[in-house]
Amino acid sequence: MDAALQPLIEMNTWVWKRFKRSLTELSPDEIDWRPLPQANNINVIVRHLRLEAEWHLDCLEHGAPMPNEITQEDQRRINSVGLDFDRNLRELEELYARFVAQLGKMTPAELKKQSALAYRGFGDELPAHMLGYHQAIHLAGHMAQISTLRNLYRKTRGEAARFFPDNPTYPK
Which domains does the chain show, CATH number per domain? Predict the structure, then answer.
């Protein structure tokens, strides 16, 4: 492993552990609960993350472009992934582990090259090694969404929030 990429590997590993922790003791009802009919639920979010993880891995391993515009073939692939929470979470975990393992085999120059290939067509303002941390940032954002959904789910049932229930920075 190239020592220069160690912080990226640590970040991805740490975010994954936090993400998995955000799903502990998840009830079957919580998986499909929505605060509003048009809102995402945890099941939809995990499916989305599973699809995106496949794209990130394909970019890292093969230099494939990150989909900028969805083709008919992309849409067919998206539609083929159902709302099976357990399966999508299992596949997400496998894809994420492969992504981190692949990062560990790369040099900064290789990551820079794969990032340039992955994000061609996205503009020139992107960081050189974006592929190394984009997925972690994406996962962390959806982890916050899941934590919020889980807190709202509990509060609508008269229970204390699961995450940070006594944070002094929030007014009572």
Answer: 3-155 (1.20.120.450)
pTM of the model: 0.92
Kindly report each contact of residues 144-149 with a partner whose C-beta sits within 8 Å and lies 24 or more positions away, as own/partner.
145/40, 145/45, 146/22, 146/23, 146/42, 146/45, 147/22, 149/30, 149/33, 149/35, 149/40, 149/41, 149/42
CA distance 6 to 145: 27
- Residue 121 near residue 68 (C-beta atoms within 8 A): yes
The secondary structure of residue 15, as a DSSP letter, is H
- Amino acid identity of residue 57, one-letter, is L
Taking each continuous run of H as one helix and of E as one strand, the counts in the chain are: 7, 0
Mean pLDDT by 10 residues, the chain (172 residues): 90 97 95 95 98 96 90 92 97 98 95 93 83 94 96 92 74 68
Amino acid at site 69: E
Residues 43/23, Cβ–Cβ less than 8 Å: no
